[in-house]
Design a protein that fits this description.
Length: 78
C-alpha cells in the first residue's frame, strides 16, 4: 500500500514533467486551470494533492486526459 505522500510525490513529478513538455510556467498552468500558482508549486513538490475537479482542470490545461496523468503517476509508483 502506498502512502499519501508517495502518491502526492508521484503526481507532482508527472505534473511537472507534463508542464515542461508543454513549455508552460507554473503561472501559465495555474491560469489555464483556474488555480493559484502556489497551489501548482505545492502539488509539484508533493505537498498538496488536487481534488477530482482540479485534476480535470489541470488535465485540460495540459491537453491530456485526467486518466493519462493518473496512469503516469501509477507507473512511477511501481
Amino acid at each position: 500500500m502506498r502512502t499519501s505522500g508517495q502518491t502526492a510525490a508521484a503526481f507532482g513529478r508527472v505534473l511537472r514533467d507534463q508542464r515542461a513538455v508543454r513549455r508552460l510556467s507554473q503561472e501559465g498552468l495555474a491560469l489555464g486551470a483556474g488555480v493559484d500558482r502556489t497551489f501548482v508549486s505545492q502539488m509539484e513538490r508533493g505537498i498538496r494533492q488536487p481534488t477530482l475537479t482540479t485534476l480535470w482542470k489541470l488535465a485540460a490545461a495540459l491537453g491530456v486526459s485526467p486518466a493519462t496523468l493518473v496512469a503516469r503517476a501509477e507507473r512511477l509508483m511501481r
